[in-house]
Write the structure tokens for this entry.
Amino acid sequence: MIRVQQEDFDIGAEVAKLTGGRTDIGAIVTFTGTVRDHDGAVEEMTLEHYPGMTERELSRVEAEAQARWPLQASLVVHRYGMLRPGDNIVLVVTASEHRDAAFDAAKFLMDYLKTSAPFWKRESGSGGSRWVEAEAGDADAAARWHKRNHAAE
Amino acid sequence: MRLLYFAWVKEKVGRASEEVAIPENVATVAELIAWLKSRGPEFANAFEREHVIRAAIDQSHVRHDARIGHAREIAFFPPVTGG
């Protein structure tokens, strides 16, 4: 399941909704990304996105995770709009019988969405505002999963 | 055809979207960028570092050598920074 929304999310409530009543799950991994301030320079962060394509990309990445690992449930929630330092940005939840699949799938989902989901961050503070630059390390993190995929083929 | 711009590409071209009639000799994304750059200084400026600009045809990521074909919607944007 994927959701794109302005509102905040409650991690406990999301996990309960996703896995409540199920007894076949042995491992639940959650990842939460939050707005980080650099030395008091960030007062606001605005997340722009591409409505339509965002949902398509998140669904595509989630489907790929489902195809690669035996997941019993997964959830990606990504916020957009105006956020402040400390606010939640993104939530990934993966549930599986065993921990390895849940951990690996959660990392894969984050690595992939960071390089493919059409979101752009703009930071504003006392020093003005600027679009956040993509980090080369993000592409490397996503590319590592390509290599593993090819190695397994 | 509908063109969409996001983040600093949108700011530089001064609009979020527009309907355009693309010349018949424009077949690929790279050729579309070259044509856009000829439309005015704001486009020349926005697409100055064209190798960093990403494109999507009908909401799927594509490379600059992708053919436009019968695309309904083409978007241009900087590398994504979500998550």
Summary: The helical segments of chain A are 11-19, 53-68, 99-116, 136-152. The two ends of chain A are 27 Å apart (CA to CA).
